[in-house]
Write a structure and sequence with these properties.
The complex is a heterodimer of chains A (about 200) and B (about 150). With about 200 residues, chain A is an alpha/beta fold. Chain A is built from five helices and six strands; from the N terminus they run αααββαβαβββ. Chain A has a domain of about 120 residues: THUMP superfamily (THUMP fold). Chain A is about 35% helix and about 25% strand. In chain A, strands 1, 2, 3, 4, 5 and 6 form a six-stranded mixed β-sheet that branches. In chain A, a hairpin with a 5-residue loop joins β5 and β6. Chain B has about 150 residues and is an alpha+beta fold. Chain B has two helices and eight strands. The radius of gyration of chain B is 21 Å and the shape is globular. The relative contact order of chain B is 0.21. The chains are: A alpha/beta (about 200), B alpha+beta (about 150). Chains A and B meet through α1, α2 and α3 of A and α1 and β7 of B.
Chain lengths: ~200, ~150
């Protein structure tokens, strides 16, 4: 009988150990996890938007034709963020740009690093340190043929205990010479939060 | 003495039960995997070898892989898998596509992300993906229950 009591204790210890596995721990999570924590814009939303936009753009028939023999030069415009949230939209366009570059179909110009470029070229040209033959001259960069523009909006509705947030990310590729939008697509995301009866 | 033996046996099963409860509390199921590999037959036509693996018997009762297709957009491979719900309820799933080149090497390894998918009762739905670059010749679709 004594042995039996010991077993009950052992069961309690093992049980509590395995249960405590879920409380107050720190661990690495999956960077690609799609678990929503709130209706706010989250990492999975960013990944979904980036993947949808890139998949759509590189498989759109006129784009396939355009990129079959050459890699057009594109520049990225800032996202017009019309949501009520502060979102690092550059991070969204960075993901899209990285995926497009890695597809091998497009080349990009990055205007955000122009100040550093000018500084480096000035040193190469004026400091006397760099061999004139290898020094990069001003005015040789390639102009972008296309501009990648995007709009980001949200519609937030609240009724009773339910909050419904609808996000829409629209992206277009504008031909800078003709002004024509050569490609456009949108990604919609809906997130619904229902407050539990005993929830805080 | 016989009594004690019974008590020990029931306690051992109690330990196993409590321990398994604790372990399943935080884990995510592996789910369903579908692969499609492009190859060429003797006449030079493109074919798709398909394979479906169920790692989770619970999910097997909920969802069925109806079809896997592929097409080329220029030199980039597109994949489409048709799923059908066997359940009468609306079920949330997560899916992701991984892409491999002709040698079976994963492209952009580890960079994929899970996407949410909602399938209504007895509904069939298609999920699509485009290879990250022209090397992509084989895809793997993974489906799991939300974590």
């Amino acid at each position: 009988m004594k042995f039996g009591i010991k077993m009950i204790l052992a069961a309690a210890v093992i049980g509590s150990l395995s249960l405590s596995g879920c409380a107050s721990t720190i661990q690495y999570g999956d960077a690609g996890s799609a678990k929503p924590l709130s209706t706010e814009f989250g990492s999975s939303d960013l990944q979904q938007i980036a993947e949808t936009m890139v998949d759509s753009m590189i498989s759109f028939p006129p784009m396939v034709e355009l990129t079959s023999s050459r890699r057009p030069v594109v520049t990225v415009d800032k996202v017009k963020n019309k949501t009520m949230q502060h979102i690092d939209t550059e991070s969204v366009t960075d993901s899209i740009r990285a995926k497009l570059i890695r597809s091998g179909k497009f080349r990009f110009i990055d205007r955000t690093t122009d100040a550093q470029t000018v500084e480096e070229l000035k040193i190469q040209q004026d400091s006397g340190l760099v061999d004139k033959k290898s020094a990069v001259k001003f005015g040789q960069q390639i102009g972008a043929e296309f501009l990648l523009t995007s709009n980001f909006s949200e519609i937030r509705q609240r009724a009773g205990d339910t909050t419904d947030v609808y996000y829409k990310f629209t992206m277009s590729l504008k031909n800078l010479k003709t002004g024509i939008l050569e490609w456009s697509d949108e990604k919609e995301i809906r997130k619904v939060f229902k407050r539990g009866t005993f929830g805080g | 003495m016989k009594n004690t033996g019974n008590l020990i046996a029931s306690n051992v099963s109690a330990i196993a039960l409590i321990a398994s409860l604790g372990l399943t509390g935080c884990s995510t199921t592996a789910g369903v995997e579908t692969t499609g590999k492009t190859s060429w037959d003797e006449e030079g036509a493109r074919t798709l070898e398909k394979k479906v693996v169920f790692n989770n018997s619970g999910l097997k009762g909920d969802i069925e892989i109806v079809d896997a297709k592929s097409a080329l957009a220029g030199d980039i491979m597109k994949a489409q898998v048709t799923l059908r719900s066997k359940d009468s309820d609306t079920i949330p799933f997560q899916y992701r596509f991984d892409w491999y080149d002709a040698n079976g090497m994963e492209i952009n390894s580890g960079s994929g992300s899970w996407k949410p998918l909602i399938i209504y009762g007895r509904e069939s739905k298609t999920v699509q993906s485009v290879a990250p670059d022209p090397r992509g010749r084989e895809f793997k679709l993974k489906i799991r229950e939300p974590d």
